[in-house]
Each structure stands twice: as structure tokens, then as C-alpha cells.
Design goal:
The protein is α+β, with helices and mostly antiparallel strands and 164 residues long. The chain is 29% helix and 29% strand. Strand 6 and strand 7 form a beta hairpin. The chain starts with 5 loop residues before the first strand and ends in a 13-residue tail after the last helix.
Length: 164
């Protein structure tokens, strides 16, 4: 298989809190894919909180910018339904992408150690995490994302500038 195109971006925000500067670091990891159905997945224990439900319920830019945007919760197979959240704009297409192999992958990563959430849109899958970029951690996450994409029909990682 061709090597996937990957990008890691780090950022920080400085906030003055009662005279003290507090710095928050976050990084984002992106892997290029074929242009899949827009989809947000909250993984494992992170799906229990209201914070991530609110985040997942917000349509990504590729959907929100449409003339009549539609964004709804996708009911996952019973084995994963109470452990993960998924939202999409196309229930049928998303159901086809979230096959038994993908559900098994989600179950294997339900501890939330590698991912809190995943977003598929505009030909990339991406996730973000707190903290500065750590090479070893990023490599584990990228390997896991490529493994996930290998299980999804039509998700072959590609160069983002390539036409499909």
C-alpha cells in the first residue's frame, strides 16, 4: 500500500487567569483519505459526557456550509451503540462505512487512550489531543488511523491533492 499523507499540527493558547498566564497545548493529526461521508465519532468513555455529545452534534464545515445542512445521530450496531457516539449527514452511506470490522476496531479502542474523537470530512480523517506533539504518541495514533482506514470500504489513504 502507498504511504499515507499525514500532517501533525500543534497549537497553544495563552490565557491570563488572575494575573498568571496559563498555556494550553493541543495538537491535531490528519491522515488523507478518499472523500468519505462526513462523520464524527466519539470514542468509548468520552461518549458518556455532555461535552463531546455537544461537539459531535455540531456539523463540520463541509456540511454546515451546505444550502440545507442535515446532521443527525447515527445508531451504531448494538455491540457499540452505548459505548460510542456517531453523527453524520447520510445515515445509509455512514452505515456502509461503519462495517463489522470498523465496529470491532472501535471496540478495541474504547478505552479512549489513543482517541477521544475522530472526524471524517473533506478527504481527511483527523483527531486532536491535549498536550504538545510527542513523536511516539503521534506515530501510534497514525498507525491506528491507517489501520482503521484499511477496514473501511473505499477509504484508501491518498494524497489530499489527488483526484479520486
Amino acid at each position: 500500500m502507498a504511504r499515507p499523507r499525514v500532517r501533525g499540527v500543534g497549537g497553544s493558547a495563552h490565557r491570563d487567569h488572575r494575573g498568571n498566564t496559563v498555556t494550553h497545548h493541543e495538537h491535531r493529526i490528519e491522515v488523507a483519505t478518499a472523500d468519505l461521508v462526513p462523520l464524527k465519532i466519539v470514542v468509548g468513555r468520552w461518549a458518556e459526557g455532555k461535552r463531546f455529545r455537544k461537539w459531535a452534534a455540531q456539523a463540520p464545515q463541509t456540511v454546515a456550509g451546505q444550502e440545507q445542512p442535515l446532521w443527525m445521530e447515527l445508531r451504531l450496531p448494538e455491540s457499540a451503540d452505548h459505548k460510542h457516539l456517531a453523527f453524520t449527514n447520510d445515515l445509509v452511506e455512514a452505515d456502509g462505512v461503519l462495517n463489522a470490522q470498523v465496529v470491532a476496531w472501535l471496540q478495541a479502542h474504547a478505552d479512549g487512550e489513543l482517541f477521544q474523537h475522530l472526524t471524517f470530512e473533506g478527504g481527511v480523517v483527523y483527531t486532536s489531543a491535549h498536550g504538545q506533539i510527542d513523536g511516539e504518541s503521534v506515530l501510534r495514533r497514525v498507525d491506528a488511523l491507517v489501520d482503521l482506514l484499511d477496514r473501511m470500504p473505499g477509504a484508501r489513504p491518498r494524497h489530499p491533492a489527488a483526484t479520486v
